[in-house]
Write a structure and sequence with these properties.
Shape: flat
Number of helices: 5
Radius of gyration: 12 Å
Distance between the termini: 11 Å
Strand order of the largest sheet: 1-3-2
Strand content: 15-25%
Helix content: 55-70%
Number of domains: 1
Structural class: alpha/beta
Order of helices and strands: EHEHHEHH
Largest sheet: 3 strands, parallel
């Protein structure tokens, strides 16, 4: 997971450090309430558990505003972590 004041910042840092790549890796971008709500669901928890089990690469880019939403809401935080 990378976070930044803007998604572009997190993405640029991730690419330059070779933590994320544009091909062969699913990248989730969380920038607002709707993207956080879509990511922090039971379905996504299940899918992420499968990715881990299958050793699939995944990146999560989180804008500072979205990180604040996650940390302020117990249900979001529980599913995100």
């Amino acid at each position: 997971m990378l976070t930044g004041d803007k998604l572009e910042t997190a993405e640029n840092i991730g690419e330059s450090c070779k933590l994320i790549k544009r091909t062969g890796m699913q990248i989730h971008r969380l920038s607002d309430q709707k993207s956080v709500e879509n990511f922090c669901t039971d379905e996504m928890v299940r899918k992420n558990a499968e990715r881990i089990k299958n050793e699939e690469m995944m990146g999560i880019l989180v804008e500072a505003k979205a990180l604040g939403l996650i940390l302020e809401n117990y249900l979001f935080k529980e599913k995100f972590l």
